Amino acid sequence: MRLSDLGEFGFLRELERRGLVQRIQNDAAQFAPDLVVTQDALVEGVHFRLDWTSWHDLGYKAAAVNISDLAASGAEPEALIVSLGLPGESEADDVIALYEGIAETGVPVLGGDTTSAERLYLSVTALGRAERVPGRDGARAGDLLVVTGPLGASAAGFYCLQERLTNPCAREHLRPPLRVAEGKELAQSAHAMLDISDGLASDALRIAERSGCRLVIELERVPVAAGVAKVAAHIKQDVYALACAFGEDYELLAAVPEPGRFSVIGRCEEGEGVVFLRDGEPVEFSGWDHFRD
Ligand SMILES: [Mg+2]
User: How many angstroms separate the CA atoms of 241 and 238, rounded?
Assistant: First the structure.
């Protein structure tokens, strides 16, 4: 069977079933009571294109997506380890700009590796400390669902970059937010939390599956980023398809007993799966899955 038939989730489930990986359900691996580590790789042509992305922004994004997984774990980032593969003819100034982008996140690089490769490959490992890691399996009926910020800007930005449209969303696609403070605050009481990397629809389903409950999301309550509606109209897409089914917003989604200062978008109920409601009626969305076409 090919990876593209299994899909990313299916492949990970198969590794888990065979006992070859363990405790992989969360955003970051917890290997001591308070230590968490996460790693994300970016590959040219799959995760980024150098004709859209500056080397500086690429460095920032590679660090930011890892810091986002620590934020989803309620952790304070303490160090980054950076592995880089790239062609020998790459300009040294470009690679320095990439490291300057990483440095802009404020988390120090304490090691890594560089190697020759046919196309640019960048893997960042982020290490941090958390007082309490909510994980994904503790959501329960009665919890409220909150997000830390508006969604859809990254999707709209992607289309703007692709179509060479001028829109502030383009920058949002290249510069994900760092929600470390929000993550630490939510982690104090959240029953489940993750960062929205693959789309609200896909990521909500992960909480539903791991927690054994149903997540009900009311579209009217989902905060949509400025500029998204204009892009959606331009490309004849539903604004909520951009906000819920694309991903890379890197806001946090949490199931909490009390919402505090965060936007409530729905609730947890007895049952399974994710239900999106528009005007009280269910609607369908799907998310992004690596390995699938
Ligand atoms: Mg994540």
Answer: 5
Burial of 198 (0-12, 13-18, 19+ CB in 10 A): buried
Q: Could you tell me the pTM of the whole model? A: 0.91
What residue ranges define each of the domains in the chain, with the CATH number in brackets?
A: 3-130 (3.30.1330.10), 144-283 (3.90.650.10)
CA 92 to ligand 1 centroid distance, Å? 31
Q: Report d(CA 204, CA 152) in Å as an integer.
A: 15
Tell me how far the alpha carbon of residue 194 lies from the centroid of ligand 1, in angstroms.
6
- Whether residue 32 is predicted with pLDDT greater than 80 in this model: the reply is yes
Taken in order 172, 46, 7, 21, the sign of the CA dihedral is negative
In the reported structure, the alpha carbon of residue 70 is separated from the centroid of ligand 1 by a whole-number distance in angstroms of 8
- Give the closest residue to 217 by CA, choosing from 161, 265, 151, 166: 265
Over residues 193-211, mean pLDDT: 95
Average pLDDT over residues 212-217: 97
Residues with Cβ within 5 Å of ion ligand 1? 27, 69, 195, 197
Expressed in angstroms and rounded, the spacing between residue 68 Cα and the centre of ligand 1 is 7
Cβ contacts of residue 51 below 8 Å, gap of 6+?
none
Expressed in angstroms and rounded, the spacing between residue 126 Cα and the centre of ligand 1 is 12
Nearest to 123 by CA among 40, 38, 37, 36: 40
Distance 262 CA to ligand 1 centre (A): 19
Burial of 114 (0-12, 13-18, 19+ CB in 10 A): exposed
Q: How far is the CA of 93 from the centre of ligand 1 (A)?
A: 31
